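Two proteins were folded this term; both appear here.
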Amino acid sequence: MFTQFMKLFSVNLKSMFREKQVWFWNIFFPIILMVIFMVIFAGGSNEFKAKVALVDVEHSEMSTQMADQLSSIPMFEWNSEEPVSIEQANEWILSDDIDAAILLPNASNGNELKLIYNQENESSATIQGIKGIINEFIVQANWAVIGVEPTFVVESQAISSAGHTINYKDFLLTGMIAMAIAQGGLFGMIEMVEMRKTGLLRRLKMTPVRLGLNAAAALLVRILLAIVQIVLLSLIGVFGFGATLNIDIPTLIVAFIIGVLAFNALGYLISSFSKTLEAYMGISNIASFLMIFLSGIFFPTSGFPDWLVPVSAILPLTYFVDALRDGMVYASGFLTSKFWFGLMIVTIWGVVAYALGTMLYRKSKIETR
């Protein structure tokens, strides 16, 4: 039986890696997507910066003093060392050379400090950040004018359950690993569809080959593929972008095994009612992209709109990525109720998908022609 298993393993290994879809969806796509997001969101400094210009119409003593104070704010990058005209500032804003212009108080606007920006960017994080800085500046300026020291001040402190200070690189890396493993299961049953379509599955049933042994060999191949995905993406994230991992081996192994089995069961279910390769790839793509953007791969689900949170809460990838982060970033151990509750949801998805897939395979024709 062991000899037959090894032969079936070899056949499944060669068959899987002959498929171009396997190489793309399981290897190249996660790498490309991770590199793009790393470069865009995690490639630079985490410090907030905004390009601004200063408009001083009257050059009064008060406006000059205020200009000196504003120029000392480290988050502002000044497009010009000297104040510019309102016309020049508007031109720079409309051409996106600067994010905003600050119009200092003058005779026409009284004691009002005016912030000018492009209306198209009103809801952007940069404009909101500039507004917050200017509001804080005005509060401090008002305290200084009346000569009163504020009684209370705000001091920020960020804490994490991780053993180190985590950043977006760590968050994204573990999310991409979870996504890659999920896609390995969803897109890993291409061979099943082809075998049923060509009649090979029916012919195998008429031979001494044990289909259960063949399924076990195919599953082992996909487990090895998932291990390759973890190692490859981790190496790129750590050495290419400076991500930091804090791995807890038992937690990672438990999350990994349950996740691989559950998502392979989902792929098995999709293959059970897909009569063509095109149908299988189409359904897998829909399921994959739905989970990718709603499961906290790229951004925390806590930032989702209220109506979207329940949708995210029923998706298996949401809990799988949390479990992987417990094992690769937070190292919180697998004895927490949150960890096991999440994996229970993933397991339910896997069990139900496998049961439905098995029932559909038994009720439908083994081959489509």
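Next, the second protein.
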Amino acid sequence: MDLPKLLNLFASSLLLSVLMVSPATLAGEGSAEGALHELLDAFLAGASINDIEMHDRFWADDLVYTSSAGERRGKAEIMASLRQAGQPDDQALPAYRGEDVAIRVFDDLAVVTFRLVAGMPDGGVSEYFNTGVFALRDGQWKAFTWQATRIPAAGD
């Protein structure tokens, strides 16, 4: 084989290797963000129906949750209030969704910021800025710090 053909073959092989490795590398880098986004969506759907198992999955045992009213609670308090409330009528609960979600991953820690939109049963809408800090523990992302801030309605 002559040198130009050999160089062309080498360059093609090198390009193919790079193309095969790059998507895998990118998928690996993007998988944490994707997993966190899926977890957030599943949590918001579960919170819309007071899914106790979803809350248990989402919150870390050492959670510090600061509500939009300035109240601090841990996971134990949140779980106890959910159990005490029981399963309410689906019509009585807000339907939650996240908008403007931004996820930043730092090795085994991640910061998730988003606008929480709560569609109220009476047709009203409440909005909050939420920030959660997650840790990767035993292969699962868990929120261990949470901050919610109510966004004033227009005219407030």
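The chain has one domain: 3-151. The helical segments are 3-47, 52-58, 75-85. These notes refer to the second protein only.
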